[in-house]
Input
Amino acid sequence: MLRLFLVVLALLGLSHAGAAQEMTARFGSGATPFLVRSTTDVAIIRPVMERFAALNPEIAITYEQWGSNGLFDQSRAECRDGTPGADAVLSSAVQQMVWLVNAACAQPYRSAETAALPTTRRWRDELWGVTIEPAVIAYNKRLLPVDEVPRSRFALLDALRERPQVFHNRIATYDIAESGLGFLFAYSDSLEATTFGGLLEGFARVDAVATCCSAEIISGVANGRYVMAYNVLGSYVANANEPDVGMILPEDYTLLLSRGYMIPKGAARADIAARLLDYLLGPEAQRLLVQAGLVTEMDDTEPALAVSARRYIALSPTLLVARDANRRTLLLQFWSDTFRQAAFP
Amino acid sequence: MSTGPEPHPKARPVRSLVSRVLGTVFVILLLGGVLVAGSTWWNGQQAARQAYDRILVGAASDIAESIRVQRGAPLVDLPVSAFQLLAQAPEDRIYYAVIGPGGQLVTGVDPDHRITAPARGGAPVRFFDDMLDGEPARFVILTRRFVERDFSGPVDVVVGQTLRARKAMTRDLVIDALLPLALAGIVMIGIAFLVIRSALAPLGALIEDLSHRDPYDLTPMPTERLPRELQVMLGAMNRFMQRLDTQVEAMRNLISDTAHQLRTPVAAIRVHAETAMSDPEEEARGRALDRLALRTRSLGTLLDQLLSRALVIHRTDSMPRTLVDLREIALEIMERDDSAVLAPGAELRLEIGEDPVLVRADAFSLAEAARNLLGNALSHGEAPIVIGAAEEDGQAVLWVQDSGPGPEDQVIARLGARFNRNAGTREQSTGIGLSIVTSVAAAFDGRVEMTRRPDGFRAALIFPMVPDTMREDA
Output
């Protein structure tokens, strides 16, 4: 059944890949056009962009919301052809951003704000992580009492083993073949611990659902279709504004993603892109981003996440491995093999 | 103080000694610095290249290790460790590709971007330089050969990296090495400045002294506590000034002597001339004219002597000394017929040996001195008169002897003074003549000796003999 689901989603994905941007928003009405391409929902980032437009009245911002793969293909094509495209690119698929920077598709910029970033959140002064978003376990508060909520992956494994009936077909996670973000998290998990294999087997045993799109997963948790969702981006959970959906930062380790900001080599208004970057890293925008759920202050979570449990997905050339074709094939193979073995024992 | 020509108006300003030496030291240090910097840079580059080449090889080996054969085709489980290794150069872009035996790409950072490696050589690990997206980069190609049932052949792993970290490392190494060197250079220039200044300080004092010196002041400058080189220079200058002083003194003496010597005879001539003019008697006028003629002749002799003395003083001071045989001087005096004028018919004899009697002196001055001795003997002594030159007790002697008793003791005692005539003495005086003799003796490190002998009175000029070893360079 899962395979059928995957096939359907794959077809949907293919049809989707040909499309350009999903949505376009405009901020400000100045004389200078400025194009931002991003994977971030317009609805989430709107306050920040509005404020930036207000601060810079001479600019007319066009904000295009893209799927991560489409945005990557578009950026790579523009980089190769040398045609001017976006003035700034902001993507959650940081392995793709690292690839673009590695292919010399970005231009450098340096300021006090960028220098203040930790080394995990910048590379070559060409790629900067502007947000901090944890990969969380979302759960339905009505279906899962507080004391039964697993606070770590080990607890989750135990719960899957002890009470399979509760979770049967009611655990959701990203389909890593379809979702760039899901693949990145799965890849990071596979590097992080041996729990990854066990977790996949556990998911397969309870017939977990690998599906697409944060919004669907979260609404599924909210309406009780799923008891729990693994490795959902915390910012989406926070923004879904569903009172019934709870959020856990796994205590063994929590993956922390910083969306990558890049100024393409062919950017017509690199100066404004740099200004936007400095603004995004500045205290005002960071406060707005915290409100939007795009920046999670780890010390403010309840309970506070131990420093040793924080796993930043560092912006470094190591992420090139995540985009390697062989490596991807192997991980997908491992993923589908595990699910298939469990599905057809 | 400078005796050289005035600097041309368009010529560059004359640089001081300190700035010249310091400039040279600076240029030497700068050249050394450039050489050291070059070699340091080269070393740093080599070190960085080695260090990061090892990282490249490590990463390539990691990747090569991770290749496995699956269903008859190579498959790479790209190891993260390889990229963590490459991330030791955190700012550098990376290239990697795994290429199968047929040249087909197994996996790579960008399937559309192929770096073509140079032709396969014998070595299993080969490095090469190429551009990576417009930036210079260093690559390594490493070959792993597979011999499996379903797959065999070489699989190439190409790993490359841009050069930022290498350049940064080179720069750091160079700066670390050059900073102390630059500091040392500055300190050395400082020390050189102090040393040069202290070494040239006496020169500065000398310049100060010279620039404030009265041009008429010919006293010697103090040479004590000066460096040897400066002492030589200053000694030469002092000698020069001393000679100038002597010349000036001699000139002054000559003028005053001449004035003194000429005043009396000229006055006497005037008196005789006036007498001759005014005396009405023919006979008395004739006598006065006779006296006038005598006086005039005597004045001529006096002038000769004065000029001769001036010439001798000048020559002894300025002419280079040569080897002179005293016998030749004696011979020359004999052959000149002065004696015939002074004392016609006087008996003259020459007494010389067979060996040369060599002295280092001026032949003309010696001849003048000898002529004066002979003149004195002819005027005041008694015939026969003997002229001789010989070596006596290791000294060279040129002598004139007459058969008379000689002058009084008190006259002998006063001999050699500049002039010892009083107003009452005759014009044909021995005074100037003897002063020439003593001057010549003194000028050539000799002396005058007057001795009474059983057979007469002898006046001798005694000089040190020239040693045999020095006769060759005559």
Observations:
- The first strand of chain A starts at residue 23 and ends at 27.
